[in-house]
Each structure stands twice: as structure tokens, then as C-alpha cells.
Specification:
Length: about 270
């Protein structure tokens, strides 16, 4: 059966081939989400509710209703069982971080941003390679037609750091989603990528030329070929080993972490 790739699967390989092997080839059991990922899940659920109401033609929910959905999602899991890596933080800090993201989003979201909601958590299929033999999937947080008629791919981030300009320009994830959108809507003239860095109340945008988009397609095809040729799956130890699902299983990771202080890093990505 052909492998179905995703941006996150490729990123796992690029960050640490050993982690890729443990997760996707050996299929080792994974612990539940860390608390940073759980904040992201709960914030995404609340925003899915918010824009679902607009998509259904109902008025924008109040801040209280938005936060009520967040609280319901937050209380669905015992947070005591979630991993907290950073020193000096407890579950209450993360709970408040999610509320903060939603409060500033709700306060600053302009009606003009809303446009027409076309899909939420929209599954997208991408085919790459000369014969389309490489398959990828992704999920668009919010797919819209903006007030100016341009299609928009929105992505929510709850990370604790802002991207650099080159991070926005080099982002592969939303380029892949655009390739999937264009497979469904070949007549789409322009597609805008919108990132919401919710912790900071900041948004970033990009529109790729067709040349740039094809560059992402070629680079991703090359990345898949590298994965498929790999035989060593070397461990790449670094600070992110602290968050690795397999750090207790990985000899190199264990040795590295024994000599490292616990981090005070920004909140990791969902
Ligand atoms: S602990 Fe570190 S080196 Fe080992 S698999 Fe995880 S990320 Fe890779």
C-alpha cells in the first residue's frame, strides 16, 4: 500500500530521522499529547465552533460563548496526566494561555476578515511527482473566500515564538495545502495563506506565484525521495529531545538529556 505523507510526517524526518523511524516505521506506542499540544487542540476546537456558527449564517458568537467551548474542551481530559516539560510552569499557566489566545483573537478579529467560510478542518489531498504517485494529506484549519474574492487558507498557531520573515516565505505546509486546493479548484486565480499567531494577536500573509508554488512541489517531491531512500535513521539529538515521544526509548536521546538542564523554551508548536 502506498505511503500517505503529510507536512508533519516529512518534518519529523527532517528534524530527527530516528524519531521518524520510531513513529512511522516501528509504530512504537506514543504517550498522549503534551500540554502545549493540548492547548492547541482546545483553541482549535473553540475557533472551529466560532467559524462554524458564521458558516451556518448565524451571528458571531460572543466572547463568553467562545470561551465556554474552550473550557468544555479543556475539561474533557484530566490535565494532570499531560506532560509539562518546561520548568516553572503548571497546567494553570497553559489553561490561561489558551484563554488569552482566544480573548485577543476575538477582540481584534475584524468582520472584514470573515468573508465566506468554505470549510473548517478541511481534509485536503495532494498528489506530487510526474505521475502523481506521491500522496499527501493535510487539514486546513479554515478555508475561506475573502472579502476581496481571493481564496484563503488560514492556519492557527499557539506557539510561544513569532516566525521570522524567512520562516513565512519558506513555509511548506500551506504551500502543500494550496496545491491540494488547486487540485479541487483549478480555476482559482489567487490563494492567500494566512497564519494566526494567536499568542501574540499577530497575523502574517503570503501569496505565492505559480513559479514559487511549483518550487515547493519539486522540493517536497525531493524530500519524499530522501525519506524513501533512507536506511540509517540516525538520531539527531538536540533541545527538542525534551519533547520527543520516544525519549525514554532512544539511547542517544537518553544520554543527551542526562547532561542537559530542563528547558525554559518557548511553547512548542501543535
Ligand atoms: S530522543 Fe531525540 S534523538 Fe532520540 S528519537 Fe527523539 S528526537 Fe531523535
Amino acid at each position: 500500500m502506498p505511503v500517505t505523507y503529510s507536512h508533519s510526517r516529512l518534518s519529523t524526518f527532517e528534524n530527527c530521522p530516528r524519531q521518524y523511524r520510531y513513529r512511522y516505521l516501528d509504530k512504537l506506542p506514543r504517550p498522549g499529547p503534551g500540554i502545549e499540544a493540548y492547548v492547541g487542540i482546545c483553541v482549535h476546537k473553540a475557533l472551529e465552533f466560532y467559524f462554524g456558527e458564521l458558516r451556518a449564517g448565524r451571528p458571531a458568537p460572543s466572547r463568553a460563548d467562545l470561551l465556554a467551548v474552550y473550557e468544555e474542551a479543556w475539561s474533557a481530559t484530566s490535565v494532570a496526566g499531560l506532560r509539562i516539560v518546561k520548568t516553572g510552569f503548571d497546567s494553570n499557566d497553559y489553561h490561561l494561555l489558551g484563554r488569552h489566545c482566544l480573548e485577543i483573537y476575538e477582540a481584534e478579529a475584524a468582520e472584514s476578515e470573515f468573508g465566506e467560510v468554505l470549510g473548517l478542518e478541511k481534509k485536503i489531498h495532494i498528489r506530487l511527482g510526474k505521475t502523481g504517485s506521491y500522496r499527501l494529506i493535510g487539514y486546513i484549519d479554515r478555508f475561506m473566500r475573502g472579502a476581496d474574492g481571493v481564496y484563503e487558507i488560514h492556519d492557527y498557531k499557539t506557539s510561544g515564538s513569532l516566525p521570522r520573515p524567512q520562516d513565512i516565505q519558506q513555509d511548506r505546509q500551506l504551500a502543500l495545502y494550496e496545491l491540494g486546493v488547486r487540485g479541487e479548484l483549478p480555476a482559482a486565480a489567487r490563494v492567500r495563506h494566512v497564519w494566526h499567531y494567536l499568542t501574540f494577536g499577530r497575523r502574517f500573509q503570503r501569496i505565492l506565484s505559480s513559479t514559487q508554488l511549483q518550487g515547493f512541489a519539486r522540493a517536497t517531491t525531493a524530500a519524499i525521495r530522501r525519506v524513501e531512500k533512507e536506511t540509517e535513521f540516525a538520531a539527531r539529538t538536540r533541545i527538542l529531545c525534551h519533547w520527543c515521544d520516544f525519549k525514554d526509548h532512544c539511547p542517544e536521546g537518553r544520554e543527551y538529556l542526562e547532561n542537559q538542564p530542563k528547558p525554559g523554551l518557548p511553547v512548542a508548536e501543535r
